[in-house]
């Protein structure tokens, strides 16, 4: 039986077996306490043994990190905190953990240290809580879309197109890098490759997602995406998971409403289903906050912050309006933004965070960005200068969602792809959807790890994915 089930429903007096990893052992003259965790829940179960029940040799092997099975009777706990504990009848040891070598001792370890032992960190309270919340959010995402008539579309990982047109791709090739076949002009001849052309790992499933929406009306993708951008920040990974709904007949306003409803639903789902893990992470954060300067401390606790997002309407404004707010801010006037503000700039994280954390103090949906800073597939506004783009900005995170209404006119899309240097032959299939039964459609992408960061309150994206891939780190 898993510890979660035992704590919730097992009857006092019943005989049970618990299998898990030892967190702590305390040997007293008249009694031995062993705390066991199996990852099913944040709580440990305490096993209580009278001396003599566990023989001396076995007792020595039971150390922090070892894996054991305990059989005994479930009794009411005499101590506070837990309803029940196990009165031990027998113990067997699956695997020992040499105390001189096992790196996770029962004390607080820094997140930096734990990143170096990504193979063991899921055994800590913090990481097991994050991984359970991550799972629950993934489940809530599928549930939301399924309940709302969306179909899960599996888009390819290996692709010939660069959906975002930003050139940040990992190449996929079977050619010998030391001796590749060459064309007459000295460039690599990808025609001799396995795929017969240049291919890369996908940066986004959107373009294929659009093909799905133009047949099934409402689809979503949920898969790994890859960006070879050399950004060593707390919000970027080289491999991250993205969820991308795409809906036929949706205009930008419908897309915004979907983004708001969807994010509120999954956050609410986590609040309702991960209460113990969230309470644990909230306490952890409170400790962390104490070491910060008073003016840097968060005004709200983690759970209050999540409830605030769920209960309040997101602010909606255009990029142009946002620029006006930034231009009239004290921070701009005092020259305190690192990147100067003017219409046309790609908003930097400092600008986004100013808007969300200082000005509005709420999630913000920014729309109608200048076309030159956005991808080629976004629908041009009537002014010819801006596109029907939307970014959703969250407190503490910045951009969590990027999306848009898509260009549905064949001529305009062809022109835009030419303008940005995308060759027609690489996206002929995408262009064709605008020739055969084109329709208005919209969608967005939400970075799964950024969502998990927001819900768990973690400050570094490397701590919300089991095995982070960042520049120069992909050990496991
Ligand atoms: O804004 P992005 O680049 O948009 C797209 O890829 C569109 N094709 C989405 C769509 O319309 N279907 O990325 C979408 C989101 C960002 O808002 C961010 O949350 C996340 O993906 N993201 C990253 N997360 C972690 N590490 C990175 N390097 C990320 N790059 C983007
Ligand atoms: Mg973006």
From TrEMBL:
Superkingdom of the organism of origin: Bacteria
Enzyme class (EC, first level): ligase
Swiss-Prot/TrEMBL GO biological process terms: asparaginyl-tRNA aminoacylation
Enzyme Commission code(s) on record: 6.1.1.22
Compartmental location: Cytoplasm
Keywords annotated in UniProt: Aminoacyl-tRNA synthetase, ATP-binding, Coiled coil, Cytoplasm, Ligase, Nucleotide-binding, Protein biosynthesis
GO molecular function per UniProt: asparagine-tRNA ligase activity; ATP binding; nucleic acid binding
Reaction(s) catalysed (UniProt annotation): tRNA(Asn) + L-asparagine + ATP = L-asparaginyl-tRNA(Asn) + AMP + diphosphate + H(+)
One Pfam family in the UniProt entry: tRNA-synt_2
Description of how the protein assembles with itself and partners: Homodimer.
HAMAP family: Asn_tRNA_synth
Entries under NCBIfam families matching the protein: asnS (TIGR00457), PRK03932.1 (NF003037)
Annotated protein name in UniProt: Asparagine--tRNA ligase
């Amino acid at each position: 039986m898993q510890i979660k089930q035992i704590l919730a429903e097992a009857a006092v007096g019943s005989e049970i077996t618990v299998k898990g990893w030892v967190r702590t052992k305390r040997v007293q003259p008249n009694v031995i306490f062993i705390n066991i965790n199996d990852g099913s829940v944040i709580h440990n179960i305490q096993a209580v043994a009278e001396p003599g029940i566990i023989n001396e040799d076995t007792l020595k092997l039971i150390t922090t990190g070892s894996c054991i099975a305990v059989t005994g009777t479930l009794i009411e706990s005499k101590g506070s905190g837990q309803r029940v504990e196990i009165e031990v009848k027998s113990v067997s040891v699956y695997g020992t953990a040499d105390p001189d070598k096992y790196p996770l001792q029962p004390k607080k370890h820094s997140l930096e240290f734990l990143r170096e032992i990504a193979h063991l960190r899921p055994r800590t309270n913090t990481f097991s809580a994050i991984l359970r919340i991550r799972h629950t959010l993934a489940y809530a995402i599928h549930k939301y879309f399924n309940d709302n008539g969306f179909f899960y579309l599996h888009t390819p990982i290996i692709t010939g197109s660069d959906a975002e047109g930003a050139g940040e791709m990992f190449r996929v090739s079977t050619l010998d890098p030391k001796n590749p076949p060459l064309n007459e002009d000295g460039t690599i001849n990808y025609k001799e490759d396995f795929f017969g052309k240049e291919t890369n790992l996908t940066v986004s499933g959107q373009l294929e997602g659009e093909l799905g929406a133009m047949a099934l009306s409402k689809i979503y993708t949920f898969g790994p995406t890859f960006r070879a951008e050399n950004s060593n920040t707390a919000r970027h990974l080289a491999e991250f998971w993205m969820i991308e709904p795409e809906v036929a007949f949706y205009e930008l306003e419908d897309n915004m409403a979907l983004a708001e409803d969807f994010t509120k639903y999954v956050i609410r789902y986590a609040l309702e289903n991960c209460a113990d893990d969230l309470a644990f992470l909230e306490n952890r954060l409170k400790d962390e906050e104490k070491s910060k300067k008073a003016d840097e401390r968060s005004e709200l606790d983690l759970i209050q912050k999540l409830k605030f997002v769920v209960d309040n309407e997101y602010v909606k404004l255009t990029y142009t309006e946002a620029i006006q707010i930034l231009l009239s801010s004290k921070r701009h006037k005092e020259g305190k933004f690192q990147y100067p503000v003017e219409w046309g700039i790609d908003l930097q994280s400092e600008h986004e965070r100013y808007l969300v954390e200082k000005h509005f103090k709420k999630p913000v949906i920014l729309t109608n960005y200048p076309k030159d800073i956005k991808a080629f597939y976004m629908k041009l506004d009537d002014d010819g200068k801006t596109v029907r783009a939307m970014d959703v900005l969250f407190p503490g995170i910045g951009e969590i969602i990027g999306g848009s209404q898509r260009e549905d006119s064949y001529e305009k899309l062809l022109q835009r792809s030419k303008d940005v240097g995308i060759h027609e032959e690489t996206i002929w299939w995408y262009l064709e959807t605008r020739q055969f039964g084109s329709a208005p459609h919209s969608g967005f992408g939400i970075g799964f790890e950024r969502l998990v960061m927001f819900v768990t309150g973690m400050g570094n994206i490397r701590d919300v994915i089991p095995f982070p891939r960042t520049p120069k780190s992909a050990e496991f």
